[in-house]
Amino acid sequence: MTVNRESKQHPRAPVQVASFIYDPEITETEPPDHVTAIPEGPQSRSMTALLKAEWFLERSLYFGLVLMGIGLAAIMFVQVLLRYVFALPFVGIEELALLMGAWFYFLGLAYVTRNGEHIHGGIVTLLIKSPRKIQGIRLIMTVASIAACLVFGYYASKYAIFEIERGRASSYMRWPKGLWSASMIIGFAGTIIYLSLQAINQIIDLKTRLSIVKKG
Questions:
Q1: DSSP code of residue 130
Q2: Domain count of the chain?
Q3: Does residue 111 sit within a domain?
Q4: What global pTM score does this model have?
Q5: Which of 15, 163, 167, 206 is such that its CA lies 20 to 30 A from the CA of 134?
Q6: How far apart are CA 179 and CA 53, in angstroms?
Q7: Which element (helix H / strand E) includes 161?
Q8: 40 vs 10: CA distance, rounded Å
Q9: Does residue 206 lie within any of the structural domains?
């Protein structure tokens, strides 16, 4: 099937041209845009105030990702030098790598959820043509994701608290293992916050679409 139309899919900040919210473009009509935690366009006063407060969370996640990414690359470089140049491998670097990797992963989980740039399945847009139904299904998927994150976050928190209370330490550096486990708590908490914002925006979008239908 040949489709001649201009796609409305567009890159999103901060990566611009290299990142897209993508749906398969083999349908006859353009699927409705994904509604994310951070809506585009003019907003109500309450939403504007909420987004201003969210800015601090976004900056914390962003700089945390930058710090952990640079730190992880740096210690891997140092480990290569110590192991293969000076023949003095430092076992503690392996623990530091796992620590930074865990924080990088779970901070990234929340940050990607904020921008709605995680992997999307496109089967819905192939089988369903109604934009309202598509957005309704996406809302259900968001609610299901919140439920899953609540379950996983609960057990992650339970495990982290268990390690902190027991005073468990890493094998070589003897650092509190709660430092590793805390990344899961922060990651799931941030993800739940952004999925909740996304669900609110999806509900607003659905109400707007329904009101347009009623007026029509």
A1: -
A2: 1
A3: yes
A4: 0.80
A5: 15
A6: 26
A7: helix 131-166
A8: 12
A9: yes
